[in-house]
């Protein structure tokens, strides 16, 4: 039940509003790797991926990480490297 609520809450977020926590200078979306490639990479690393969406040129991932901790992480869509978050002031 908790998983369903978490997924629905993540889906309810409007993707038109970027969080500003991470930005990626990722260029034309046609050069991006697919979300499926990122998902498979994360699954192989032990993550349980719930949702991947576009956010300010990054892929924003909601998942349980390899330690089963609830995680919101950002990845560069071209390199699929994890992006460091900017602190909000």
- E-strand count: 3
Helix content: 10-25%
Task: List the total number of helices.
Answer: 2
Whole-number average pLDDT? 82
What is the string of helix and strand elements? HHEEE
Structural class: alpha+beta
The biggest beta sheet, please?
3 strands, antiparallel
Strand arrangement, largest sheet?
1-2-3
Q: Which geometry do the CA atoms define?
A: globular
Tell me the distance between the termini.
35 Å
Radius of gyration (Å): 13 Å
Provide the low-confidence segments as ranges: 11-18
Strand content: 15-25%
Topology:
Blueprint: H1 2-12, H2 35-44, E1 48-55, E2 58-64, E3 70-75
Antiparallel strand pairs: 1-2, 2-3
Question: Which properties best describe this structure?
Answer:
single chain; 89 residues; alpha+beta; 3-stranded antiparallel beta sheet; 2 helices; 3 strands
